[in-house]
Structures are given as structure tokens and as C-alpha cells.
Specification:
The complex is a heterodimer of chains A (133) and B (136). With 133 residues, chain A is mostly helical. Chain A is 52% helix and 0% strand.
């Protein structure tokens, strides 16, 4: 291996650089990789929180944009947390993907409809009687 | 989404857009102003969706009239602080990169919220007191 300080080549097992005396990192191949958080066993704190459930997005979509898509999004959001609690990381990721998809669909539908309605109103083509938002 | 635009930029963009919407809602009352997107569900069925009245309610809230807002859409008024908190957490995470307020909401709470939304959706369309208070 090469000395990190002076770049001189050393033995693989050298503790100090033969050239400049810099202590060599005892890198070496790790015999056993550090045990990663086992999937599906008990509550693993680190990866657990990293799966977004899109709950807030789904609520907003349900209330403001497109109720069916938002409701479906909330259903998948609950699945994300349920699976995380059960230790099913992969299932949680799947549910998270679906939650994201449905909230995005709802958001786009609401946005497109809103823009269309706005254009319609501004062009004066239809009197939108009835409840505003 | 975050592959093309950085999460930080998107966070600032959404904040700007959100403040813009709030500014419009402050100035214009959806009850009297044309141009606000109406509820598609209501237009098609004549019934109220869980969100009906929330635009008008926000307008009232922005002018400090919580009672009027509650009268229009009580669920939205109750849920709004949590939604704002959640959005704030997302925003801080996107801008600072730190996972603040990292707690897992139990799935059963989310399912309970879903049940509340669905029941509210049905009940606010019952034209009988006390359920009629749920309608805008």
C-alpha cells in the first residue's frame, strides 16, 4: 500500500511508512463486514425513517385537488408506516412509491382542471355557478 | 423530481408559490371572486367533498375570523396546523438536509385520519342538524 502522506510504496502489512514514518491506516480487508441492520427483524431505527409516506401531500391533494387520488394516497401512506412498524422495509418502499404516484396524479389532475377552469372563466365561456373553493 | 432540480431549489419554489397563493387568497374571497377552480366533485354531483369550503375558509382565516372558517370547513381548520407543521418539516429537511422531527406516525393514526375524512365526507352531505354544520 502507499503512504497517505508521502506516497511511498510500503508493505501491505506495514504499520509505519518506511520513508517518512507516517502511521499507516490499518486498512486491510475486513474479515467480516459490519452487520447491517437486518431487514425484517424488529424496529430498525436508521432505515426506518428514510421511507417517505407522502401523508401530508396526500392530505393536501385530497382536500384541494382531487379527492379520490388523495384518499388513495392516504391509504398507501398508512401502509408505508404499517410496514415499517412491522419491519417490512421493502413493502414500505413499494407502498411509498404508490403513495407518491397517486398524490402526483391527483396533484396534476387538480392542477390541469384548475387551469382549464381558470381559462374558461377568463375567456367568459362558462359562468361557473355553484360553489367556489 | 429531485434529480433534475435540487431539493433546496424546489423547496424555495414551493414556498414562493404557496405564499403567492396565500396572497391571492388574502385579497380575493373565493365566495365572490370568479376564477377560483371549483370543486369537480361538487360540480358533477352537487354533493360536498371533504375539501369544499376550504378556500373560503382559508380566506376567513387569513383575516383572523376562525369562527367563520370553522363554520365553512371544520375538518380543514382542525387539520391545518398539522399540515402546516408537516410542510414546515419537509421544507426544513429539503433546505438544510437535516432530518428534523424524525418520528414515525403510527399507521393506525393514519388509518384513523382516513376514516375521519371518509365519515366527514358522508356526514357533511346529510342535510340534518347537527351534521349540516359540517357543510360549508
Amino acid at each position: 500500500m502507499f503512504c497517505p502522506k508521502c506516497g511511498a510504496e510500503n508493505n501491505e502489512t506495514a504499520k509505519y511508512c518506511a520513508s517518512c514514518g507516517q502511521p499507516m491506516e490499518v486498512a486491510g480487508p475486513s474479515p467480516v463486514p459490519p452487520p447491517a441492520a437486518p431487514m425484517g427483524v424488529g424496529p430498525a431505527p436508521a432505515p426506518m425513517q428514510k421511507v417517505p409516506n407522502y401523508l401530508v401531500h396526500a392530505i393536501l391533494v385530497a382536500v384541494l385537488c382531487c379527492v379520490p387520488c388523495g384518499v388513495v394516497g392516504i391509504v398507501f401512506a398508512s401502509q408505508v408506516n404499517a410496514k415499517l412498524q412491522a419491519g417490512d422495509y421493502r413493502g414500505a418502499v413499494e407502498a411509498s412509491t404508490k403513495a407518491k404516484m397517486w398524490t402526483t396524479i391527483g396533484f396534476v389532475v387538480g392542477l390541469v382542471l384548475g387551469i382549464l377552469m381558470l381559462i374558461g372563466v377568463l375567456l367568459g365561456e362558462e359562468e361557473m355557478a355553484g360553489a367556489g373553493l | 423530481m429531485a434529480c433534475v432540480v435540487s431539493a433546496r431549489l424546489a423547496a424555495w419554489g414551493f414556498l414562493a408559490a404557496g405564499l403567492g397563493v396565500l396572497a391571492v387568497l388574502y385579497r380575493c374571497d373565493p365566495a365572490t371572486t370568479r376564477g377560483f377552480p371549483p370543486c369537480l366533485f361538487h360540480s358533477l354531483t352537487g354533493l360536498y367533498c371533504p375539501g369544499c369550503g376550504s378556500g373560503r375558509a382559508l380566506h376567513r382565516l387569513l383575516h383572523g375570523d376562525v369562527a367563520a372558517a370553522f363554520d365553512l370547513n371544520p375538518l380543514m381548520v382542525l387539520v391545518l396546523p398539522f399540515v402546516l407543521f408537516g410542510l414546515g418539516v419537509y421544507w426544513v429537511r429539503a433546505v438544510t438536509g437535516r432530518r428534523v422531527c424524525d418520528f414515525a406516525v403510527p399507521a393506525v393514526w393514519i388509518r384513523a385520519l382516513l376514516c375521519v375524512v371518509l365519515v366527514y365526507w358522508v356526514l357533511r352531505n346529510v342535510p340534518v342538524a347537527p351534521f349540516s354544520y359540517l357543510a360549508p
